[in-house]
């Protein structure tokens, strides 16, 4: 069974800001991607990777700017990657940094993806790939990721450094000339997206390693990408907008209602059990931190009956 990738919602804010700056409607962009606007206030919330791909594609169509992903990631750099950026800045060499990123990315930032180095004689490919089967927004997401990969290498080789070549999948790239200008090199097409540069660069030393005790050196909670965890995250998202339903969750996962039920049963749980746990957890948080009545908390958690101790 193919996995359902999860990612953190950190790119949501910059995307919304770029859409507004271009005169577009973030509400319309998020609506097309079926993502609640409340995520703008929760950058560490987990969402489906396929939903992020849809959001990037929707933003591009809204403002007519195919170079938007490259513009966002090259501007933000590794600082936007949170704990992944910390791992980069803590490494002694570029090669060590890329090995760290390969190891921790699926744990802390984004599952169902691969990022790492493949050597081919005198050249290295620092690549990125989405393992989940989805086509909507795939190429745009590659461009977004490649901008962050470029920022990683430039931490060691300088802001003016340019790769020998950038590779993306597919046979056509909208906005190719502008994206080449942002990346500073030619873009080619191939079976795997990535940056190509001389292998010897992997020995480059870190010119500015972070000091122990930096306030941004903390780690995120690991991402759990099993099916039950995906269902729980989707229910929690739906609580922000409407009453969650098993049919809506199954549709977001690309499954039939019965298939979702069967696969959850295979893991020893049921949709109703996950839903109850998510609602109870949300209610506990609201009871502890907000001056709300029991009725208001029931409404916020989409409960039809008053909560009982």
UniProtKB/TrEMBL annotation:
Q: Does the UniProt entry include the keyword Transport?
A: no
Q: Name one GO molecular function term.
A: transcription cis-regulatory region binding
Domain named HTH araC/xylS-type is located at 229-297
Q: What is this protein called?
A: Regulatory protein, Fis family
Keyword vocabulary terms for this entry: DNA-binding, Plasmid, Transcription, Transcription regulation
Span-the-membrane segments of this chain are none
| Listed InterPro entries | AraC-type_N (IPR032687), Homeodomain-like_sf (IPR009057), HTH_AraC (IPR018060), HTH_Fis (IPR002197)
Cellular compartments per GO CC: cytosol
Family matches, as Pfam families: Arabinose_bd, HTH_8
């Amino acid at each position: 069974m193919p996995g359902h990738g999860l990612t953190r919602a950190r790119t949501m804010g910059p995307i919304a800001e770029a859409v507004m700056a271009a005169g577009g409607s973030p509400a319309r962009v998020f609506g097309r991607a079926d993502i609640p606007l409340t995520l703008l206030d929760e950058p560490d919330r987990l969402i489906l990777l396929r939903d992020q791909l849809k959001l990037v594609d929707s933003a591009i169509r809204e403002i007519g700017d195919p170079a938007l992903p490259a513009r966002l990631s090259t501007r933000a750099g590794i600082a936007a990657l949170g704990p992944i950026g910390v791992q980069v800045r803590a490494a002694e060499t570029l090669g060590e940094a890329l090995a760290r990123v390969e190891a921790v990315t699926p744990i802390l930032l984004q599952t169902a993806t691969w990022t790492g180095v493949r050597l081919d004689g005198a050249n290295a490919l620092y690549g990125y790939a989405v393992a989940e089967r989805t086509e909507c927004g795939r190429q745009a997401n590659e461009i977004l990721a490649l901008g962050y990969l470029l920022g990683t290498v430039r931490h060691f080789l300088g802001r003016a450094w340019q790769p020998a070549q950038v590779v993306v999948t597919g046979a056509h790239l909208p906005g190719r000339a502008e994206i080449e200008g942002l990346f500073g090199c030619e873009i080619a097409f191939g079976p795997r997206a990535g940056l190509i540069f001389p292998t010897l660069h992997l020995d480059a030393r870190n010119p500015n390693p972070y000091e122990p005790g930096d306030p941004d050196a903390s780690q995120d909670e690991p991402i759990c990408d099993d099916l039950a965890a995906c269902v729980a995250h989707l229910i929690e998202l739906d609580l922000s907008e409407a009453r969650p339903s098993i049919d809506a969750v199954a549709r977001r996962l690309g499954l039939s209602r019965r298939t979702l039920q069967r696969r959850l049963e295979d893991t020893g749980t049921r949709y109703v059990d996950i839903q109850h746990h998510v609602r109870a957890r949300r209610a506990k948080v609201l009871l502890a931190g907000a001056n709300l009545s029991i009725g208001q908390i029931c409404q916020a958690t989409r409960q039809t009956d008053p909560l009982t101790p």
